[in-house]
């Protein structure tokens, strides 16, 4: 017996044929079995037949070649990010903005890979090459063919056409925004950066850091976010920029890119100045639309509101005692609406913390004075001999560390170590505790609504934490200003995807964070196995949890490597 391929109607069939001799002794053939159409047969269907025939005649089954397994690469999380990127239209938008006949590589694919890297395994651009070659399978990109210079050239292309890129991204995000009333939140953070050499137009400056105490070399990053938590714009500033100067320019950019009828700007404590308020009011008049604001008064300026707070403090305290909740009142300040919220519990905590600090300083002062008195009486204590000047220095440093110089004062003019506690200043500081002061132009919202809207600003702080922890925007090792700006744009795009993923998970009722969701999907890997000189590719079979996650996010399950 043997096999034969026959043809009929343009198709090929596999048959099992037997040769025999008829009565006249002529050799003929007859079909023992039709095994099916050749194009529909697979190894899976024929292997059992082959093994059965071998067993029937007592022949050992053939042993296949030893399979060779390549390193498995993360795929599920990158597949999900790729689908989100495509659904937002960022692939086509950025590809059009970066279109060029001078490049031999796909700049959009490299930008996309750099964005995904920030969310999957943040690393330097040089380390990212190892990630692409050994750890990750980015859909639509051959990681083995990418080199470091191409990543840098893609970053350069991003900034050469950053206006087009940012306008294209804004166009894709515009349908997701409320066109009638847009509440936008603006805040600024600082990003650590390496390098000491100064360059022209350098954004690396020494300024007060928001990550560590004191001065650091850094740049400043501002982010605009909608009330729904979607980042829509960002801006890079010098590391020593005054926060109060950043609000006007970003609002002008928003008005150019988004056709808004009304905009309410909510900004944190470092951004209040009369110049800001007047700039926003002038922009509204110039553009012919309502540009309103809710700006928090920074704590360092609370002293300017002492009279107002002292006048309203009894009403706030009485309201809090009556309702057992936060009390809110409003008044006028320099012709503008001022809303004051008082949280009694927070005030009590701040009062207690201040009292502890003052008592610790008082105890330190007593010890220092007692040491000097005993020393003068001929009873020196162990250790280095003290002086009034050294006591002043030690005490003054402790006061500065606890930020209580307005209440606890060392008398530096006296020849002997002395200090005093200003009870009136202490009482005034206690009255300021638990207070939130908001200056606003809104007239169609209640005082409670103003406070609630401002409290939503905390979400942008969470976005900054995502940038610094999960996306790892810092530390930055680039030195050229345009590369720094490109790095910030890549991290901003990663934040957009992160927030889109968060919105979908929240809408589906999932309790997973975006980080946990991506970590769960990362367990789906792309595999390559070589058997008998042939390569077989596949994807890890998703678990029930992963299948549910794909459904929650609204993304189809990957069936094969893209």
Tell me what you see in this structure:
It contains 18 helices and 18 strands. Helix 4 crosses helix 16. With about 550 residues, it is an alpha+beta fold. The longest helix has about 35 residues, at about 345-375. Strands 6, 7, 8, 9, 10, 11, 12, 13 and 16 form a 9-stranded mixed β-sheet that branches.
What order do the helices and strands come in, and which of them pair?
Layout lengths: L1 E7 L2 E11 L5 E11 L5 H14 L11 E2 L3 E2 L1 H12 L2 H8 L9 H14 L4 H11 L12 H13 L1 H12 L8 E11 L12 E4 L6 E12 L4 E8 L8 H11 L4 E6 L6 H14 L2 E7 L9 H18 L3 E7 L2 E7 L1 H33 L11 H14 L6 E3 L8 E3 L1 H10 L2 E6 L6 H9 L2 H12 L11 H27 L6 H8 L3 E7 L2 E6 L4 H10 L9
User: Which percent bin holds the helix content?
Assistant: 40-55%
Number of helices: 18
The poorly predicted ranges are: none
**Shape estimate:** elongated
The pLDDT mean sits at 86
List keywords for this structure.
562 residues; alpha+beta; nine-stranded mixed beta sheet
Give me a quick take on this structure:
The protein is of the alpha+beta class.
């Amino acid at each position: 017996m043997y096999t034969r391929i026959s043809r009929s109607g343009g198709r090929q069939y596999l048959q099992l044929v037997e040769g025999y001799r008829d009565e006249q002794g002529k050799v003929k053939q007859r079909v023992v079995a039709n095994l099916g159409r050749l194009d529909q047969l697979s190894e899976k269907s024929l292997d059992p037949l082959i093994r059965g025939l071998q067993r029937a005649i007592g022949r050992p089954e053939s042993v296949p070649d030893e399979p060779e397994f390549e390193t498995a690469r993360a795929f599920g999380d990158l597949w999900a990010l790729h689908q989100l990127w495509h659904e937002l239209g960022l692939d086509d938008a950025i590809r059009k903005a970066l279109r060029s006949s001078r490049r031999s590589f796909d700049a959009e694919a490299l930008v996309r890979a750099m964005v995904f890297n920030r969310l999957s395994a943040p690393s330097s651009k040089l380390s990212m090459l190892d990630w692409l070659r050994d750890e990750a399978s980015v859909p639509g990109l051959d990681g083995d063919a990418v080199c470091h210079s191409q990543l840098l050239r893609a970053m350069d292309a991003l900034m050469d056409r950053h206006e087009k890129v940012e306008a294209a991204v804004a166009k894709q995000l515009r349908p997701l925004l409320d066109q009638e009333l847009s509440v936008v939140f603006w805040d600024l953070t600082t990003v650590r950066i390496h390098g000491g050499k100064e360059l022209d137009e350098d954004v690396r400056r020494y300024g007060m850091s928001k990550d560590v105490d004191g001065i650091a070399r850094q740049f400043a990053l501002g982010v605009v976010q909608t009330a729904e938590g979607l980042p829509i714009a960002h801006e890079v500033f010098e590391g020593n920029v005054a926060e109060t100067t950043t609000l006007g320019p970003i609002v002008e950019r928003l008005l150019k890119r988004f056709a808004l009828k009304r905009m309410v700007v909510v900004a944190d404590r470092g951004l209040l100045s009369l110049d800001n308020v007047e700039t926003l009011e002038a922009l509204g008049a110039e553009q012919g639309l309502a540009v309103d604001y809710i700006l928090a008064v920074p704590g360092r300026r609370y002293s300017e509101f002492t009279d107002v707070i002292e006048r309203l403090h009894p009403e706030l305290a009485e309201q809090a005692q009556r309702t057992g909740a936060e009390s809110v009142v409003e008044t006028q300040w320099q012709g503008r609406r001022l809303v004051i919220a008082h949280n009694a519990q927070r005030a009590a905590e701040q009062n207690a913390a201040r009292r502890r600090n003052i008592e610790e300083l008082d105890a330190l002062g007593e010890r220092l004075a007692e040491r000097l008195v005993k020393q003068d009486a001929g009873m020196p204590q162990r250790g280095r001999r003290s002086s009034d000047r050294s006591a002043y220095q030690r005490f003054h440093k402790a006061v500065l560390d606890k930020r209580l110089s307005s209440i606890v004062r060392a008398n530096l003019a006296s020849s002997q170590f002395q200090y005093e506690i200003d009870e009136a200043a202490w009482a005034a500081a206690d009255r300021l505790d638990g207070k939130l002061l908001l200056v606003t132009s809104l007239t169609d919202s209640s005082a409670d609504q103003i406070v609630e809207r401002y409290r939503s600003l905390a979400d942008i702080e969470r976005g900054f934490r995502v940038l610094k922890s999960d996306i790892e925007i810092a530390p930055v090792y680039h030195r050229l200003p345009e590369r720094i700006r490109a790095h910030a744009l890549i991290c901003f795009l990663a934040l957009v995807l992160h927030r889109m993923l968060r919105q979908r998970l929240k809408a589906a009722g999932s309790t997973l964070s975006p980080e946990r969701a991506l970590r769960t999907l990362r367990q789906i890997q792309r595999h390559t196995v070589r058997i008998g000189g042939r390569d077989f590719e596949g994807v890890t079979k998703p678990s029930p949890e992963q299948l549910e996650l794909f459904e929650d996010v609204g993304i189809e399950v990957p069936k094969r490597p893209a």
